[in-house]
Amino acid sequence: MNGSQMQALMPILMLSLTAIVLMIQASIKRDEKATWIITVVGILLALWGAGYARDFSQPVTILLQVDNWGLFFTALVLLASLVTVVLSQDSFSSEGGSKEEYYLLLVLSALGAVILIQSSHMASLLLGMELMGVALYAMIAFPKKGLLPLEAAVKYLVLSGCASAILLFGFALLYAATGELSYKGIGEKAALAYISNPLLVMAGTAMVTAGIAFKLSLVPFHMWTPDVYQGAPTPVTGFLATVSKGAVFVALARIYMDAELHQYESLILALSVLAAFSMLIGNLLALLQEDIKRLLAYSSIAHFGYLLIVLIALTGSEMASEAVTFYLAAYILTTLGAFTVIARVSREDQQKSQISEFEGLFWRNKIQATALTIAMLSFAGIPLTAGFMAKFFVINVAIQGSHWFLLSALVIGSAIGIYYYLRIIFSMSKTSGNDIGFRDRSGDITALLLTVLILMLGSWPQPFIAFAGGL
Amino acid sequence: MLEIILFYIAATVALVSTILAMTRANAIHALIYLIVSLLAVAVIFYLIGAPFVAALEIVIYAGAIMVLFVFVIMMLNLGAKGDAREKTWMRPSVWVGPALLTIVLFAELLYVISSAEGPVSTGVVGAKQVGLSLFGPYVLAVEIASMLLLAGLVGSFHLGRRYLDRAPSSELGHQQEGE
Questions:
Q1: Given this model, what pLDDT does residue B67 score?
Q2: What's the ipTM?
């Protein structure tokens, strides 16, 4: 590796450096405040690194591919990690009261996500995914109170381990058929291998798809999602919903584009079935939820169904890659906004994430109630919010590719979605009599900033669309 | 010809010992069978031309990791109570359904693999080639793996400390450990 390749790896190097500094700091003196500051500075440095690395876009060894598209998502993931760090500061306590290890695990998990985003090879894909996952298991089980976090962590650990094993088996079958492990190499050899060994290629692809669909919690691989969302501490749930799922989707999109998988009819059919079921079942099950974290879990299942449409319609439209960028950015910002408020309202009490707990929030804290309202409207896809523009892109792409079946599933799903998103807003505007206001500066500022970003993406999207088109 | 006979013997041993490892109620017995299974897999690696991986399989999996497992389980001291609980968990109603589905998938996979054409093995891969590729094109993978181990280490340290902190102050932690 030469100097310019090292410069291209700047965000990864900065995150690794942060992890090492945190280790050294913990060995000198355990101090939660200092750990928190080092983490924030480290993530900010990595954000700077993501901008700095733009001038050095290139493949770095056979494992990673640094380009503007990946660096944009790197920045987005780092932003989400930063919000999680801010929220974690006093949202939950751990065994012994201090949580230095938590920040170290968070940095390592973000590092895994960045590697996943920039990977161009099955080995780095798996290592990035595992690094992200292993750190997340411990983050989910971190709080001392209650058995729910532990249950969520065990569920996620066991099921995610199975999914990784299936993914790995899929890689082995694809390697047996093509003799390649890089995305591009598989794409080049796949067409030939498909003629000589059709079953091997299909079985391998099916297993890889299943492994990735588990991480994105697409139906029918969604069983773990509500329990893990509910059991994990709220900032960690936000991290899981944005960083983990976003990074895995970017990796999937990269495989799909680099290996030119859009030419295989059977794969498109499989993805269409996954997308349609995710949109319908995700939205239908969300109707039944009383816990807002479980509700958002099902809603995230539906949203990744919408996103899959863009991937399926990739060749039919020039807008498709912009649509992925826009939708993922809008989804991550909206989810962060929603989880910021939920983390502030429910704190560490597991019971307090019931929808009824949000009654009268408009009288308790106007800023956070408004932020949650905007986030819900954005999820539902109401005009002037980022979610509307994102859904507009998806529908546009689907029409251009004339995927009418998926489009109808999207319309039905969104219509159901409006009901349960509005239900939360109505619940917030009810008065419950004894509404004591609460002030909390860091939560208010974070919620306000995210709301402004969501509204800006929705009402004045041209600069961002131009930017996304140039990636 | 001798290789093929040896392969089938090793594969049979691996399959039988893995099935036995899954069905044993006593955790130590299960682990011993798992070690046998890993040794058989190491023989297969040796036969298809990967002596270095075969050695690693024995040293790391059958040696280090499994011995650690055995130690931990012996320290937990599960005893007859653990066996009985394991037996109640392993009712046929629990495993028949998943087992049938798995057998269907297994048959499909067997068909897929037997229909595949192409070279099975292309010569011997020694320690030198493994080292050259690990510190050549895959050097970043080694670094990422080190971070992965760090994450595992920190995570298990934190979760393990839960019980260390609790044990002296209350009996509850001790009982949980004992069970």
A1: 84
A2: 0.89
How far apart are the CA of B155 and the nearest CA of chain A, in angstroms? 5
Contacts by B39-42, CB closer than 8 A, 24 or more apart: B40/B10, B40/B11, B40/B13, B40/B14, B41/B10, B41/B14
Q: Which of A94, A184, A334, A348 is nearest to B154 (CA)?
A: A94
pLDDT at A96: 57
Averaged over B67-89, what is the pLDDT?
79
- Say which of B115, B140, B150 has its CB closest to residue A199: B115
State the Cα–Cα distance between residues A83 and A461, nearest whole angstrom: 23
Burial class (CB in 10 A: 0-12, 13-18, 19+), A462: exposed
Q: Does B160 contact A at CB distance below 8 Å?
A: no
Six-digit token pair at A297? 């879990």
Q: Give, for A459, the enclosing helix (H) or strand (E).
A: helix A441-459
CB-based contact B151 A108, cutoff 8 Å: yes
Q: Which residues of B touch A123 (CB under 8 A)?
A: 138, 141
The two tokens of residue A338 are 């929603």
Q: Global pTM?
A: 0.92
Of A60 and B118, more confident: A60
Within a 13 Å sphere around the CA of A64, how many CA atoms are in the beta-carbon half? 31
Q: Select from A1, A22, A95 the residue whose CB has the most chain B CBs within 10 Å, as the one to mutate to test that interface.
A: A95
